[in-house]
Amino acid sequence: MANIETALKEAMALEGAVGVALVDYTSGLTLGYLGGDGVMDMTVAAAANTDVVRAKMRALELLGLQDGIEDILITLDSQYHLIRLLRSRHSGDALFLYLALHKSRANLGLARHQLRKIESDLDV
């Protein structure tokens, strides 16, 4: 089982990674982050993306859909922002991994695959 620091380092090892954070979306608190240097404040970005997660969860509720969210992709002109909700081993955990990537250098499929792997190894 990987700890938070190891998981964040694995995500930052991806080609094109700008920054990564582990976030509790019930509180908006960032449990850990790496990167973002000179490009974005990862704690602000992570906290702001809690609103994205909450909005999508509310939309599913309003629509009466019983599906869970695997990930959310936001495509900007120069970046991909990937939000991966973690399937908790412990009830009550409401966490997501937030990964920002340079669009021109990143492999989105590989990034999604790697986040799934990180999730399966992560022990919070």
Automatic annotation (TrEMBL):
Alphabetized SUPFAM superfamilies for the sequence: Roadblock/LC7 domain (SSF103196)
The protein's name in its UniProt record: Roadblock/LAMTOR2 domain-containing protein
Organism: Actinoplanes subglobosus
